[in-house]
């Protein structure tokens, strides 16, 4: 891993923005343009996941002055772990190379985290595209069935969008960050579980806003990866009966000829030994919360 730093004058910030990217030069530069406009002037760390285009040079030349960490290969979501380890602020806000934060959002997030010391992760409201449409996840998080907690803000949840989350650095490291077995795709649920298992709160706070401008094109194979990781998450943290039930349902879908189910099952089987080595079932209180969510989620 190589590290380069371009100095930039900033007032003291409580939040570092961490960006991961790979072979998306134009997109990440647009994100840096937006981050440079923020009144908070946050420090920014960009982790390059093995780009083969001009991304690294272009980010280094950008006037924002982001700190650039080059992983040398595609580390997936683990690039975020690298950024958090190098951050020098108590809080870290995640952006992908197609997302950024609304002006004032980072100060608001820091105020909320300052006021609630048990809050480990703040899930923000996400607005999508040039029309700033509400991401459907906003409504799901706002209507979480988990009961309010007197020492947490907003709505307790066990899910979030990775590019619209702000974490307490200490809590993120305590939970181990994103898990190596999942790599990328639906990796947020496991992190939420691990934070909750260690007593950290995870809350949806809609007063904090992130903007997401995803590529409108299709993403082949993404559904299979998400189904694979859902199964692996079950084996990593859920009771064996639950994990076996997930496995049986996915196997049945594969047997019916669903190509994505078959791909998901093959991928899960390949990673299952590593998942079983890291298996750590959730505490009863967190498993109860997960089951409550499952009862009300279609």
Relevant terms:
single chain, 298 residues, alpha/beta, eleven-stranded mixed sheet, 11 helices, 11 strands, 43% helix
A few lines on this structure:
The protein is 43% helix and 19% strand.
Summarize the helices and strands and which ones pair or pack.
Blueprint: E1 2-4, E2 15-21, H1 25-36, E3 44-48, H2 55-61, E4 67-70, H3 78-86, E5 91-96, E6 99-101, H4 105-115, E7 119-128, E8 133-134, H5 136-142, E9 155-156, E10 165-168, H6 169-175, H7 188-197, E11 201-212, H8 222-237, H9 240-255, H10 259-277, H11 284-296
Q: Specify the helix fraction band.
A: 40-55%
Question: What gap, in angstroms, lies between the N and C termini?
Answer: 43 Å
Helical stretch tally = 11
Note the run of SSEs as H and E.
EEHEHEHEEHEEHEEHHEHHHH
The residue-averaged pLDDT reads 94
Radius of gyration over all CA atoms, rounded: 19 Å
Report the biggest beta sheet as strand number plus sense, adding barrel if it closes. Answer: 11 strands, mixed
Quaternary structure annotation: single chain
Give the DSSP E fraction (strand runs of 2 or more residues): 15-25%
Low-confidence stretches are 4-10
**Number of β-strand runs:** 11
Shape category: globular
Which secondary-structure class do the elements indicate?
A: alpha/beta
């Amino acid at each position: 891993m190589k590290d380069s730093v371009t100095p930039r004058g900033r007032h003291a910030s409580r939040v570092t923005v961490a960006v991961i990217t790979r072979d998306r030069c134009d997109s990440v530069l647009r994100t840096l343009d937006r981050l440079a406009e923020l009144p908070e002037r946050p420090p920014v760390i960009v982790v390059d996941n093995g780009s083969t285009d001009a991304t690294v040079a272009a980010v280094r030349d950008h006037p924002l002055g982001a700190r650039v960490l080059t992983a040398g290969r595609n580390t997936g979501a683990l690039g975020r772990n690298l950024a958090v380890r190098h951050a020098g602020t108590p809080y870290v806000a995640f952006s992908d190379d197609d997302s950024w934060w609304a002006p004032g959002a980072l100060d608001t997030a820091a105020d909320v985290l300052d006021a609630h010391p048990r809050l480990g992760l703040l899930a923000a409201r996400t607005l999508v595209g040039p029309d700033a449409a509400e991401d459907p996840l906003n409504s799901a998080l706002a209507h979480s069935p988990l009961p309010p907690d007197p020492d947490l803000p907003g709505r307790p949840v066990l899910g979030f969008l990775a590019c619209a989350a702000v974490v307490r650095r200490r809590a993120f490291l305590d939970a181990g960050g994103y898990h190596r077995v999942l790599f990328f795709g639906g990796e947020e649920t496991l992190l939420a579980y691990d934070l909750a298992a260690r007593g950290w709160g995870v809350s949806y706070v809609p007063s904090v806003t992130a903007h997401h401008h995803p590529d409108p094109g299709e993403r082949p194979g993404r559904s299979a990866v998400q189904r694979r990781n859902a199964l692996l998450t079950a084996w990593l943290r859920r009771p064996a009966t639950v994990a076996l039930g997930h496995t049986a349902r996915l196997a049945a879908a594969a047997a019916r000829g669903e190509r994505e189910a078959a791909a998901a099952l093959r991928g899960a089987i390949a990673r299952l030994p590593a998942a079983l080595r890291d298996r750590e079932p959730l505490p009863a209180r967190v498993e109860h919360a997960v089951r409550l969510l499952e009862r009300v989620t279609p």
